[in-house]
TrEMBL record:
<protein>
    <recommendedName>
        <fullName>Pyridoxal 5'-phosphate synthase subunit PdxT</fullName>
        <ecNumber>4.3.3.6</ecNumber>
        <ecNumber>3.5.1.2</ecNumber>
    </recommendedName>
</protein>
<dbReference type="InterPro" id="IPR029062">
    <property type="entry name" value="Class_I_gatase-like"/>
</dbReference>
<feature type="binding site">
    <location>
        <begin position="142"/>
        <end position="143"/>
    </location>
    <ligand>
        <name>L-glutamine</name>
    </ligand>
</feature>
<comment type="similarity">
    <text>Belongs to the glutaminase PdxT/SNO family.</text>
</comment>
<feature type="active site" description="Charge relay system">
    <location>
        <position position="180"/>
    </location>
</feature>
<dbReference type="InterPro" id="IPR021196">
    <property type="entry name" value="PdxT/SNO_CS"/>
</dbReference>
<keyword id="KW-0663">Pyridoxal phosphate</keyword>
<feature type="binding site">
    <location>
        <position position="114"/>
    </location>
    <ligand>
        <name>L-glutamine</name>
    </ligand>
</feature>
<dbReference type="GO" id="GO:0036381">
    <property type="term" value="F:pyridoxal 5'-phosphate synthase (glutamine hydrolysing) activity"/>
</dbReference>
<dbReference type="Pfam" id="PF01174">
    <property type="entry name" value="SNO"/>
</dbReference>
<keyword id="KW-0378">Hydrolase</keyword>
<comment type="subunit">
    <text>In the presence of PdxS, forms a dodecamer of heterodimers. Only shows activity in the heterodimer.</text>
</comment>
<feature type="binding site">
    <location>
        <begin position="54"/>
        <end position="56"/>
    </location>
    <ligand>
        <name>L-glutamine</name>
    </ligand>
</feature>
<dbReference type="GO" id="GO:1903600">
    <property type="term" value="C:glutaminase complex"/>
</dbReference>
<comment type="pathway">
    <text>Cofactor biosynthesis; pyridoxal 5'-phosphate biosynthesis.</text>
</comment>
<dbReference type="GO" id="GO:0006543">
    <property type="term" value="P:L-glutamine catabolic process"/>
</dbReference>
<feature type="active site" description="Nucleophile">
    <location>
        <position position="86"/>
    </location>
</feature>
Length: 203
């Protein structure tokens, strides 16, 4: 057992709208404590944050209402790890392609195409090669966005059909798919290892 798996982390799951319970279950399976974040005070006591999938405009509006936009931006500035899945990826990105009402925390240097995989392929599964994960990872895509372009400090972790679907920039990790909807915990473990790295630095 390595030092990271011995630690138990408190991981916030932004609970405005969307898929929160599945993330909570997967965190519990790995021995960590999920905290459903409903207001900015609750952010103070977590080691990392997951922004789940759902509907990014709905999540954005509820974040505004609950004064969570600046609070999450500050959380990121403290270099605490944030993992955005699907709608969470949309929200973390700095800019979006062809959107009338951009919803963006302006944190990660990526340009996002919302619903990028189009209507025909609203939902699908694909085995992905992910940097840092040894064997193919079964990814579930649901009305998924993709990343059209990345800034120089962003590391691309996976692509599907020549479109970027997972990436990391320092303390920020994003996936266009839903790791919480499979029994395969390896993508979540990637995030937990980032939480481990950062908490070592903060001691
Ligand atoms: N599964 C999802 O999270 C879908 C995201 C949705 N298409 C959005 O942009 O909000």
């Amino acid at each position: 057992m390595n030092s990271m798996s011995r630690n138990k982390y408190r991981i916030g799951i932004l609970s405005m709208q969307g898929a929160t319970e599945e993330h909570a279950g997967q965190l519990r399976d790995l021995g960590h404590e999920p905290i459903l974040i409903k207001n900015k005070e609750m952010l103070e006591n977590v080691d990392g944050l997951i922004i789940p999938g759902g509907e990014s405009t709905a999540i954005w509006r509820l974040m505004k209402k609950n004064k969570l936009i600046e609070a999450v931006q500050q959380f990121a500035q403290l270099k605490k790890p944030i993992f955005g899945t699907c709608a969470g990826l949309v929200l973390l990105g700095k800019s979006q392609v062809e959107t009338e009402e951009p919803v963006s925390l302006k944190l990660m240097d990526i340009k996002v195409k919302r619903n990028g995989f189009g209507r025909q392929k609203d939902s699908f599964e694909a085995n992905l090669d992910v940097k840092g994960i040894k064997e193919a990872y079964p990814a579930v895509f649901i009305r998924a966005p993709y990343i059209e372009s990345v800034g120089e400090n962003v590391e691309v972790l996976a692509a599907y059909d020549n479109k970027i679907v997972a990436a990391r920039e320092d303390n920020l990790l994003v996936a266009a798919f839903h790791p919480e909807l499979t029994d395969d915990n390896r993508f979540l473990e990637l995030f937990l290892s980032m939480v481990g790295e950062k908490s070592v630095l903060m001691i």
